[in-house]
Structure formats: structure tokens, C-alpha cells
Design goal:
heterodimer, A: 245 residues, 3-stranded mixed beta sheet, B: alpha/beta, 23% strand
Chain lengths: 245, 278
């Protein structure tokens, strides 16, 4: 049976997508993407730069909001993470609310930087652990940031993948569709279909998501856990009670 | 008011709150210097019809001002209590239509302020095209890049706040304000017609004469009023001075979940302290 936690599987899976990135930025409320970015950095021999928004610890501090957004526009951020209260099959994300705008039935925080960074950061990884039809809908109620754009719209960036608590989808920007790439150990393609409200491409054989090896787990527990405990103490304490306590 | 003025230092936070008129377009910086004491003073003075511009997002301060009935319009890239959840008074007011919501995205707020800082009517910005954020804003325009070929780009109107407010570690008697790492506070002050600041302390030397401090100092030329407010950002943090008071933040999040709970919180934490400096 698995010698890793669910969180460690997700961290290792996302970290594997970050290998080409030189500069990875992480937004607010993102302990798992943040851990994945730190893992990718550690594996690179600390040659990558990781900026964690809101982190007060050097070397992860950003120069501030304007700097981060300008940096993205200059092509100096290679990977970023977004999520959504709703995400649809065209990778549109909704961080704003459900129902008729503006007096919506459900109101969330707002778009934050998504309506900009989704266009400019080449590799945006969507992460939403809660895999349900409530989240993964046929069509979002409000497009805080669109997954695809018309060909004349300046858009070097966009969605690369959607990582959930059940599986990994990769996004085909040309076709504007997700393709199921792997299902996490202990789960099935049928379960993914049952819990997903949007249509997606599914090959005949879907592999299981590769679990983290012993060296990766050691790195996560010994080097990443103490660092991510800075901005995310409650998360670190829950996942690694011994290491990060 | 000029940098040589010595009456820029006011007697109290309440005196500073009296400088901010009802109906003002009021810019609030998001973190590391949120002027919570000044916000409480605005509630005590019964401020009304404020047009908040969160720079670029907001948390407890806009939620508090909205809940207390001080606000008619919120221009924001997002309001949230972060790890303590959604901002309950903001959410409630938007759903009821009690405030007008003008949704934006973080760099759009900065870009609008930068246009005002440069005295130009608009600023172009990448992104946004195809979003409902753009669709919901009749003041955001898409033009064709005049230097390009079939290259649509969004233009954002300048954001010129009547007032910018923030909390900072220290000021001097000339009105210069040390803003530490929060360089965006300069953009706010340059864009706004007036800037009012609370500080932990006032020092007896000129901050701009110290070459180490000067780059992180806002020139007093831009500052219209300062009041000393020790712990003026609490229960939020001021890096190097004090951390978040998570117990107080959790208590606020829980109380503000209901109208009655918020009213009780306001009575216990804001209204009873009338006349207090902090």
C-alpha cells in the first residue's frame, strides 16, 4: 500500500510538470502548488526561482504586485497556478460567483490576477482538489478568465493541465479540450466520469498517476515541509506532523 | 500642503478620519500596512457613500467598512479574508445589491492608478479579452493597437482616488513617510488627490536625508495628514513590528458571518472605543 500521502502524490505530480520552468510563481492559498514549486526547485539544484505571493521569507518574497505582473508580461514567469469555484471543459475559470451577475446567488472573492496571468504565463496549471460536478461544470456561470482566445488575441500563456484529487487532465489549446492523462491510484476512469460535469477526451488505456519515489518523498519531508510551514503552518502540521511541528 | 509644513501631523486618528469626506473615492492598499485604526475611526464618524478602490484586493478593512454601511461602491480585483474564508459582509452586500460592484483584475487596478500618476487618461493592458470581467465593465474599452496589425488590446480608464490611506512604520515632522517594502504605496499617493497616513511613530530626523531609507520613503509633498497610531494595522500585520492576530481575525470572521454577529462585533470592537487613538 501507498507509503505516501495524498498530498505528497499531488505535490510530486505537479512538480513533474514544472521541470522546464525557470521561474515559478505561486499565488495565495496554494500550499500544494507551493510545495510542488519548492520540490521542483530543490530537484533542479536550486537553479529555479520560486516566488510565493505573500511569503515574507527570503528568497521567496516578490518585489510586490506591480513587479510580479510586469515580470509576467516580460515573459519572465514560466509557470503559475490558478483554481476556480467552477472550471469548465474549455478551461474557463470562475472565481467570481454563481447566478446572474452582479447580484449573484453565490458570490466569491473575485478574479484576482487571473484575467491577466492566464494570458501571459506559458504554463498555467489548474489545481482543484475537490473533484465534483459542483466544481467541474459544462459551462462556468461567469468567466473570470477564459481558457482559450481568438487567434488574434495576444496570448503567449494559457492552461497546461488540470490536477484534481482524482486525476490529471492535460489541455489541448488547439482543440480547446481536456484529455484524461492519468488517474490517481485507488481511483477509476468511471469515477472521474461520474464526478466530472464537462466532456473530455479519454484514451482507451489511462495510466495510473505515478506515485512519488523514495528519494522524492525524502526531499519533500526533509526539505520542503519545513519551508512551506512558513507561509502555511496549518497545512504543514496536518500533512507532516513530525517534520514540520 | 508642502514638505516644509509642520502641521501635517494631526492630533488623533479621529481627526484624520474627519479629513475624508462622505462620497470620497478612497483607495486602500491590500496588505503590510492596512490602516485598520483609521478604518475604525471612519466607522465611528459615520462615513457614508464611500467608493472603495482596493489596491488591488482587500480583506478585513473593506469588509468592515461595507458591513458598517460606509460604502456605496466597491472597485476591486477581489475581497477575501484569506485563510479565514470569504469576506462575509462584502459577499452579503454584493448579493443584496447594497453596494455597486465593479470587478477588475489585479494589474488593471495598478494600471489605472499608474495612468492617474502619469496624468494620462487611460492605460492599455494585456489579458482580459473574452472574460466576463471585461464584459461587466462598460468603462473598459478594447481598441486595436495603433502600432500593430489586428492586435486588440484593452484600455483602462485612469483611477484617480480622492484619498489614499495606509499605515506605515514611521514618518518625520516634514511629512515624509517610510513605507519599507511597500513600493506600491507611492503609486497610490501619486495617483490620489490627497493621502492620509497613520504611523507607528514620528522620528526627529528627516527620513530623506538617510540614503538607506530614502528610496523606501514617500516624499511628504504627497502627504496631507498623518496621525500616530501604535498597532495601527492590528489585528493585521506590520512586517518587522507585529504579526497577524489570528485569534482576533478568526473571531471577526465568525462574528461577521451574520448581520447580528457583525453588529455585536462592531459594538464591542469599534464603537465603544470612540475617541481612542488606536
Amino acid at each position: 500500500m501507498a507509503d505516501h500521502t495524498h498530498e505528497e502524490l499531488l505535490i510530486a505530480t505537479i512538480a513533474g510538470m514544472l521541470e522546464p520552468a525557470r521561474h515559478i510563481a505561486v499565488g495565495v492559498l496554494s500550499p500544494i502548488p507551493g510545495s510542488a514549486a519548492l520540490l521542483a526547485r530543490a530537484r533542479s539544484g536550486d537553479t529555479k526561482k520560486v516566488s510565493i505571493i505573500g511569503c515574507l521569507e527570503e528568497p521567496y518574497r516578490t518585489d510586490g504586485g506591480v513587479d510580479l505582473f510586469d515580470c509576467a508580461a516580460q515573459g519572465r514567469i514560466d509557470a503559475f497556478f490558478l483554481s476556480g469555484g467552477q472550471i469548465d471543459g474549455q478551461a474557463n475559470i470562475n472565481l467570481t460567483g454563481i447566478g446572474d451577475y452582479p447580484r449573484q446567488d453565490v458570490r466569491w472573492s473575485g478574479a484576482f490576477g487571473s484575467a491577466y496571468l492566464y494570458f501571459l504565463v506559458p504554463r498555467v496549471i489548474l489545481f482543484r482538489e475537490d473533484h465534483s460536478r459542483r466544481v467541474f461544470v459544462p459551462r462556468v456561470d461567469f468567466i473570470s478568465a477564459p481558457g482559450t482566445s481568438a487567434s488574434n488575441v495576444y496570448r503567449p500563456g494559457g492552461p497546461h493541465a488540470l490536477v484534481t484529487g482524482l486525476c490529471v487532465f492535460l489541455f489541448d489549446r488547439t482543440r480547446g479540450r481536456f484529455r484524461l492523462a492519468s488517474v490517481h491510484p485507488g481511483h477509476s476512469v468511471e469515477e472521474v466520469r461520474d464526478e466530472t460535469g464537462f466532456d473530455f477526451d479519454c484514451p482507451a488505456q489511462v495510466p495510473a498517476t505515478t506515485p512519488p519515489d523514495a528519494a522524492t518523498l525524502a526531499l519533500v519531508r526533509e526539505r520542503i515541509a519545513p519551508v512551506i510551514a512558513g507561509p502555511y503552518p496549518a497545512f504543514a502540521h496536518r500533512v507532516w506532523p513530525a517534520t514540520a511541528a | 500642503m508642502t514638505s516644509s509644513s509642520t502641521n501635517v501631523i494631526l492630533d488623533s486618528v479621529d481627526a484624520l478620519a474627519a479629513c475624508i469626506s462622505d462620497g470620497a473615492k478612497l483607495a486602500l492598499f491590500k496588505d503590510c500596512g492596512v490602516p485598520m485604526a483609521l478604518g475604525r475611526a471612519l466607522v465611528r464618524r459615520g462615513a457614508r457613500n464611500l467608493h472603495l478602490v482596493t489596491v488591488p484586493t482587500g480583506g478585513m478593512l473593506p469588509d468592515l467598512l461595507i458591513g458598517a454601511g460606509c460604502v456605496s461602491t466597491v472597485e476591486t480585483a477581489g475581497v477575501t479574508l484569506g485563510e479565514f474564508g470569504l469576506a462575509p459582509r462584502f459577499v452579503d452586500a454584493v448579493k443584496r445589491g447594497a453596494v455597486t460592484i465593479r470587478d477588475a483584475t489585479c494589474p488593471a487596478i495598478y494600471a489605472g492608478l499608474q495612468a492617474a500618476e502619469k496624468g494620462i487618461p487611460f492605460m492599455p493592458l494585456r489579458g482580459l479579452i473574452g472574460s466576463d470581467v471585461l464584459a461587466s465593465r462598460d468603462d473598459f474599452k478594447v481598441i486595436d493597437n495603433p502600432f500593430g496589425d489586428d492586435d486588440p488590446i484593452v484600455c483602462l480608464p485612469a483611477i484617480r482616488p480622492d484619498c489614499a490611506i495606509f499605515h506605515a512604520p514611521m514618518a518625520d515632522c516634514a511629512g515624509n513617510v517610510y513605507i519599507a517594502r511597500q513600493a506600491e504605496m507611492k503609486i497610490l499617493a501619486h495617483a490620489a488627490r490627497e493621502t492620509f497616513v497613520t504611523v507607528e511613530r514620528v522620528v526627529d530626523f528627516n527620513l530623506l536625508e538617510d540614503a538607506t531609507l530614502a528610496p523606501a520613503t514617500l516624499n511628504g509633498f504627497y502627504v496631507n495628514g498623518i496621525a500616530v497610531a501604535p498597532q495601527g494595522a492590528a489585528p493585521l500585520n506590520l512586517p518587522g513590528h507585529y504579526d497577524y492576530d489570528t485569534t482576533a481575525l478568526r473571531a471577526y470572521a465568525e462574528a461577521a458571518a451574520t448581520t447580528d454577529g457583525f453588529a455585536a462585533w462592531l459594538a464591542d470592537n469599534v464603537l465603544v472605543r470612540a475617541g481612542a487613538a488606536a
